[in-house]
């Protein structure tokens, strides 16, 4: 059992190291240099950022959850 645990630990370490290496490679370290045709727009203020990245997903989640709940509720059956 100790050998199996050791093998799992090595596998977990390898996956962690590979993931970290891939994240470091893909980081935007060279994003300081602008590309030709790069024209960033104005930045967002705090309220716009919170609305876009917090409120909008929460509202979308609420609408989807509400539709699922409404579609799954039991229907009344008429006795004939």
Characterization of this structure:
The protein contains 2 helices and no strands. The protein is flat. The mean pLDDT is 86. 64% of the residues lie in helices and 0% in strands. With 80 residues, it is mostly helical. The chain has a domain of 53 residues. The longest helix has 27 residues.
Computed structural class? mainly alpha
Shape: flat
Helices and strands, in order, run as HH
Uncertain ranges: none
User: How much helix, percentage-wise, in residues?
Assistant: 55-70%
For the record, give the distance between the C-alpha atoms at the N and C termini, rounded to a whole number: 64 Å
Report the radius of gyration as a whole number of Å: 25 Å
Q: Report on the biggest sheet.
A: none
Content of β-strand? under 5%
Mean pLDDT: 86
How many DSSP E strands? 0
Topology, please?
Layout: H1 2-25, H2 46-72
Summarize this structure briefly.
64% of the residues lie in helices and 0% in strands.
Which features does this protein show?
80 residues; mainly alpha; 2 helices; single chain
